[in-house]
Amino acid sequence: FCPISMPRKLPSVSDGRDRPDTRISPSILSSDFARLDDECKKLVANGAEWLHVDVMDGSFVPNLTIGAPVVKSLRKCTDAFLDCHLMVSNPRQWVQDFAAAGADMYTFHLEAAQPDPGKLSGTTLDPIVVEVCKAVKAAGMHCGIALKPATSPELVFPYVEAGLVDMVLILTVEPGFGGQKFMADKVSKVRTLRDKFSSLSIEVDGGLAPSTIDQAASAGANVIVAGTAIAGAADQAEAIRILRSSVDKWSMS
Question: What's the pTM value of the predicted model, to 2 decimals?
Answer without folding.
Answer: 0.95
